[in-house]
Write a structure and sequence with these properties.
Layout (H helix, E strand, L loop, with lengths): L2 H6 L9 H10 L1 E5 L4 E3 L7 E7 L1 E7 L5 E8 L3 E2 L1 H6 L6 E4 L3 E7 H8 L3 H27 L2 H16 L1 E3 L2 E4 L5 H8 L3 H13 L3 E4 L2 E4 L2 H5 L4
Antiparallel strand pairs: 1-8, 2-7, 3-6, 3-8, 4-5, 4-7, 9-10, 10-12, 11-12
This protein binds adenosine-3',5'-cyclic-monophosphate.
């Protein structure tokens, strides 16, 4: 699929008229990255917006000691890197490819030109920012008020619904997420995630195979969130 065909389906750009989409598509360049490649670090100057054509990228904060908090995982059709383009501040977090990925990259001046006089595009960006802030609020609320079992069950439900492959017996989460990654997503230690997975396996709710997680019973998993 060429860039223009693909961008037509991206929610952020759906509002564009055909001729605007055509000229905007020409302004994007394609960047291929390998698993683990760092697209940018927190604190660096932000000069580009990214749209994921294929693959997935994690947005992450890291401590000096090597601990991580994953703020978000973005996949096909999602955009990121808009914050520094909008406020002129440095990158707010690191972006790292979770798998071999293809990204469409737009420079700042083209991005700002795209927003100028395009009310629907501005509304789409504001909507995206608002949704991300809501999710971050939810995450903060969960970290403060839910125990680890509930937080982990909630994260598995979210991953299954957003990224899982539907199977006859449930959902397969095949994102190469290590226990350490799962721990970073719910603010827990790797050891506690290991223990949670063991409990869920014993209860017949999930099965694991390497870094793949198979969810057998989403409804029962949901009942653990309280
Ligand atoms: P920017 O600050 O340019 O670079 C890091 C990007 O990660 C940021 O733009 C957003 O696109 C994204 N990002 C930062 N914080 C969050 C968050 N809490 N939730 C989702 N995405 C985020």
């Amino acid at each position: 699929m060429d860039t223009e065909e693909f961008l037509k389906q991206v929610p952020l750009l759906r509002c564009l008229r055909a001729e605007d989409l055509k000229s905007l598509s020409a302004a994007f360049r394609v960047q291929s990255v390998r698993k683990g490649d760092v697209l940018f670090h927190k604190g660096s100057e932000g000069t580009t917006l990214y749209v994921i054509k294929k693959g997935s990228v994690k947005i992450v904060l890291s401590s000096m000691g090597g601990d991580e908090v994953i703020l978000a995982i973005f996949s096909e059709g999602d955009f990121f890197g808009e914050m520094s383009l909008l406020d002129g501040m440095p990158r707010s977090a690191d972006a790292v490819a979770l798998e071999p990925s293809q990204l469409l990259v737009l420079n700042r001046s083209e991005f700002l030109r795209f927003l100028k006089g395009n009310d629907e595009a501005i509304a789409a960006i504001l909507n995206g920012l608002s949704m991300r802030l809501r999710k971050t609020d939810d995450h903060l609320e969960d970290t403060c008020f839910l125990n680890i079992s509930a937080r982990f069950a909630k994260k598995l439900v979210e991953l299954a619904e957003a990224h899982g492959q539907k199977e006859e017996s449930g959902f397969l989460i095949d994102m190469d997420l290590k226990q350490r990654d799962l721990a970073s997503m719910v603010g827990a230690t790797r050891e506690s995630i290991n223990k949670e997975l063991r409990t869920l396996r014993e209860k017949g709710l999930v099965a694991t195979e390497g870094n793949k997680i198979r969810i057998y019973n989403l409804e029962r998993l949901k009942r653990r969130i309280h």
